[in-house]
Specification:
The protein contains 13 helices and five strands. The protein is an alpha+beta fold and 353 residues long. It folds into two domains: 10-176, no CATH class; 187-220 and 242-331, no CATH class. Strands 1, 2, 3, 4 and 5 form a five-stranded antiparallel β-sheet that branches. Strand 4 (162-166) and strand 5 (169-179) form a beta hairpin. Helix 7 (201-219) crosses helix 12. Keywords: Membrane, Receptor, Transmembrane, Transmembrane helix.
């Protein structure tokens, strides 16, 4: 394995390997097809849980285009497997895997940078305020990023199969790429989150219990008043000095994304690098979207407050905002209900005399 450029690392993908009969080598195309189908299934699962706000952010729209690219990649590999008797499988598979992995390895860094600028200019971080003009600008930037990545990989990607040795056996392989940006992002983020949680380890369990009770309090916002008072007494008073906002948001992020970060950290410890074409890229995009939302919310928390329509469906940011401020989410719910009743109060119809 050797470095190609800052955003990817090179590894080898076996296309042909010696079978039981040396005169008839084993074709690995079906194996790659199953791996890509499994990846698309996992990305479909992520897409389903992100569906409510996925079109409200730049990273969300990028995830949709990556999902389409995954489906096209599966279709290309399936055609190479179905027509392997008429097409040179080694050449076609090496072309597909090399270009696909190179594009997936190049895109994360510019997507992350543009996504950060997007949230820096996002009005109030509220999805209800997103406009059609913003969606059009998202589409133009995404098309430009894909076009630049495809042009770069078309000119600088080596798609020629080569013979190499694996376990003292000669195999036919091609060069594929893994995304070092995704790898380094997951490692550094897991270290930062773990360090913050360790500093407040003794209080973390109590804060998590309070957050769960606040979430229960929000779900019972329209329950009888005596039940709400009972839950408020259970939740207790937090206080801004007790729970800093950045710690509360970190706890919110860790409660949802720590398994994913630990999985990436474990892969780093054992030296396991996933090729970019096989990585569950929508899972990383959703994680990166949560990170950017948390950072933007932290900087604008004084002016934003506990909004309800963040461009992120995975984390309960408003609950942990209340946890940091020591307030109750039922207050906002009551105000919303009173406003709705005042605006939509039915008028008394005229009666005939």
């Amino acid at each position: 394995m050797s470095n190609q450029h800052a955003s990817s690392v090179i590894m080898m993908a076996v296309i042909w390997s010696p079978g039981t009969n040396k005169n008839f080598p084993h074709d690995e195309t079906l194996q790659y097809l199953l791996i890509l189908c499994f990846k698309v299934a996992l990305n479909t699962f992520v897409l389903f849980f992100w569906r409510l706000s996925i079109f409200k952010s730049f990273l969300g729209l990028c995830s949709v285009t990556m999902y389409v690219a995954d489906v096209l990649l599966v279709s290309a590999v399936m055609n190479a497997w179905l027509f392997k008797e008429h097409l040179p499988t080694s050449t076609s598979m090496c072309f597909i895997l090399a270009h696909g992995s190179a594009v997936y390895a190049l895109l994360p860094l510019p997507i992350l940078i543009v996504g950060a600028f997007d949230y820096a200019s996002y009005p109030h971080l509220d999805t209800s305020s997103s406009t059609r003009c913003r969606a059009v600008s998202y589409s133009i930037v995404i098309v430009l990023l894909w076009a630049l990545a495809c042009c770069y990989t078309y000119n600088y990607t080596d798609t020629q199969p080569m013979e190499t040795y694996k376990d003292n056996m000669r195999v036919l392989a091609c060069r594929v790429h893994g995304s070092s940006v995704v790898f380094q992002f997951s490692i550094h983020l897991s270290i930062a989150v773990g360090f913050i949680l360790l500093l407040y380890f003794k209080k973390k369990i109590g804060w998590t219990r309070k957050a769960n009770k606040l979430a229960e309090l929000k779900n019972t916002a329209f329950a009888p008043e005596k039940d709400q008072n009972f839950l408020c007494a259970q939740a207790g008073e937090g206080g801004n000095s007790e729970i800093p906002l950045f710690v509360s948001l970190t706890l919110c992020f860790a409660s949802n994304w720590m398994p994913y970060l630990l999985m990436g950290f474990a892969c780093a410890l054992v030296g396991f690098v996933v090729p970019a074409y096989a990585s569950v890229n929508l899972l990383w995009m959703a994680c990166a979207n949560s990170v950017l939302v948390a950072i933007a919310f932290w900087f604008r928390s004084d002016s934003i407050g506990p909004l309800r329509k963040f461009p992120d469906d995975t984390c309960l940011w408003n609950i942990y905002w209340h946890l940091s401020k020591g307030t109750s989410p039922t207050v906002d719910a009551k105000l919303t209900t009173k406003l709705y009743i005042r605006v939509h109060k039915p008028t008394v119809p005229f009666q005939e005399i």
